[in-house]
Amino acid sequence: MPAEPLPTEGDAHDGGLRKVARVVLLDPRDRILLLHGHEPDDPADDWWFTPGGGVEGDETREQAALRELAEETGITEVELGPVLWRRTCSFPFAGRRWDQDEWYYLARTDRTATRATALTELERRSVAGARWWTCQELSRAHETVYPTRLAELLRRLLDEGPPAGPVTLDTEIV
């Protein structure tokens, strides 16, 4: 069964949903950056996902989004835009179930070179790289991508601009 975007082993749960901030990072050519993840012990069980991760300590979601983007891609010169989408999801990964409340922030960058600078031990075992995707490539992809309607969501974003407020996506349970 395919998993979802990568949690970190030390994430707090406080009995509820894990708070997650993700980044829809676009380059000057309107390509989106996705990371290639897989189950730590099964590289064939793989998927693509947006950079991001769990809120740590007293951080805001905005701070978490920028920190995670820097750690996972090395890209730091971005200005976060609005929250585009919100999603609740539940998935198995690395031997446990993860229940998350994810917020997706828009950001743009001129920098397209990526280099992970501060991956956790679990991320080092389960992230296989990054790739910039055009909307057309994403819509034709046979790979698993999260959120599952990302190609459609990206097309709407590029055609219409950011929504007036965050759009709540369907809950995804894997």
Automatic annotation (TrEMBL):
Cofactor: Mg(2+)
Annotated ranges, domain Nudix hydrolase: 16-156
This protein's UniProt keywords: Hydrolase, Magnesium
Keyword Magnesium in annotation: yes
Keyword Hydrolase appears in the UniProt entry: yes
Entry-linked Gene3D superfamilies: Nucleoside Triphosphate Pyrophosphohydrolase
UniProt GO molecular function: hydrolase activity
Domain of life: Bacteria
Record family assignment: Belongs to the Nudix hydrolase family.
Protein name: NUDIX hydrolase
Native source organism of the sequence: Streptomyces bullii
